[in-house]
TrEMBL record:
This is DUF2333 family protein. It comes from Neorhizobium turbinariae. Residues 95-112 have a biased composition (Low complexity). Keywords: Membrane, Transmembrane, Transmembrane helix. InterPro entries: UCP029693. The keyword Cytoplasm does not apply. Residues 90-112 are annotated as: Disordered. Pfam families: DUF2333 (PF10095). The chain crosses the membrane at residues 20-38, 45-65. The keyword Transmembrane helix applies.
Length: 387
């Protein structure tokens, strides 16, 4: 019996070895054939081919570095803003000799010109601008890079387990900023019924809604195009221009309780949709480490939470008076803590296994759990504001 077991494992090992050998030969054969053909060509043929190969190697090397290096990534980056030091809600006039927190004005400059009105800038707008800057200036915007558009031997990178996590994360961050820009235009940046839409915010929203995948040239429609990062950089300029106008009281930020209610409601709905996507993927495609789309879903949700964590932290400063008057401080802080806890989940390899699996965990279920916890807190905060 022992001899049979030993023979079985020996035969299995030999079969696996032959399979690996055949696979290796199948992968190497095209390169060996190409090498033989190349060796028989004249230098006038070899030169251009070598130049093309050098360009491709350089492009793929750059692409690999950009997808793997996440410059400026820091879940604690909101601590640098010191928004807790703000004493005046966004859009409200500051006391004399007080410079707006986060502005370039100094108390001395303000005191030298006492006639100049100074208002508090918006932390939400700062967060939206900085998140977009993080996406397109501190990092390359992956989704519109040429090699990302070409895919992996014609296969969409999102359908492979390689080099697409950063792109999904960036799109998640951008989703949070897009939703915020819409709310800034429709409600937060104007007094409903008595003021028009702010042009800077309107332009920012239009630019942020632009196609996330546009390169310098496209087929539909055919011709040259302005790439996606250029539109997003323009949005950054418009958001910062709005805050500069707000600082000199030349723009409006309506920090009323009903606006905060609507803003929270929109974010909760957005997160609810993401939780549903995670649940669907987790329940219907639980292939463990072999689910090549699980990482896309996970990192999109992570980027969305990363963006909303910063934006809602800014909302806490912009609506500080409402939060204080409605005794919402504890719930608000708890909500932000739940965001931060979710951002601690950073698996090296995203697995979409069964929820009770021992070997392959379900990172999608874990992220969905965190999102629903955050959403539950937002719903609770909305209920308190509605009272």
């Amino acid at each position: 019996m022992l001899e049979r077991i030993t023979a079985f494992f020996q035969n299995a090992g030999q079969a696996i070895g032959r399979g690996i050998g055949l696979l290796f030969a199948w992968l190497v054969w095209p390169f060996m054939a190409a090498h033989g053909w190349y060796g028989r060509r004249h230098w006038m043929v070899k030169g251009p081919i070598l130049a093309v190969l050098a360009v491709l190697i350089g492009l793929y090397g750059y692409f690999f570095i950009q997808t793997q290096v996440w410059s400026g990534f820091n879940p604690n980056f909101i601590d640098t803003y010191r928004w807790s030091e703000r004493t005046v809600p966004a859009g409200q006039e500051l006391p004399p000799s007080t410079a707006p927190a986060g502005s370039d004005a100094t108390p001395a400059a303000t005191a030298a010109n006492p006639a100049a009105r100074q208002c508090q800038s918006s932390a939400i707008v700062d967060a939206a601008a900085d998140l977009t800057d993080f996406n397109v200036n501190q990092n390359a915007w992956i989704s519109s890079m040429l090699l990302y558009r070409l895919g992996f031997f014609g296969i969409d990178w999102d359908h492979t387990p390689f080099l697409d996590n950063k792109a999904s994360f960036q799109r998640g961050v951008n989703q949070a900023v897009r939703r915020t820009s819409t709310e800034l235009v429709d409600t937060l940046g104007r007094v409903r019924g008595t003021s028009g839409i702010n042009n800077n915010l309107q332009d920012a929203r239009g630019n942020l809604q632009f196609d996330e995948y546009s390169w310098y040239f496209g087929l539909d429609p055919f011709g040259f195009k302005t790439p996606t990062p250029s539109y997003y950089r323009t949005a950054i300029e418009k958001l910062r221009a709005f805050n500069r106008d707000l600082t000199i009281c030349a723009a409006t930020f309506d920090s009323r309780a009903d606006n905060l209610v609507q803003f929270i409601d929109r974010i909760a709905n957005d997160l609810g949709g993401t939780a549903a996507i995670l649940r669907d993927r987790s329940e219907n495609h639980s292939a463990g480490w072999f689910d090549t789309r699980a990482d896309d879903r996970f990192w999109f949700a992570y980027g969305q939470l990363y963006g909303y964590y910063a934006i809602l932290s800014g909302a806490g400063a912009d609506f500080s008076q409402v939060i204080r008057e409605r005794n919402l401080g504890q719930i608000w802080n708890d909500t932000l803590s739940r965001f931060r806890s979710a951002l601690n989940v950073q698996p090296t390899i995203v697995s979409n296994g069964s929820e009770d699996g021992m070997i392959m965990p379900s990172h999608l279920a874990v992220m969905g759990f965190h999102i629903l916890n955050v959403r539950s807190n937002l719903v609770e905060a909305r209920a308190v504001l509605d009272r």
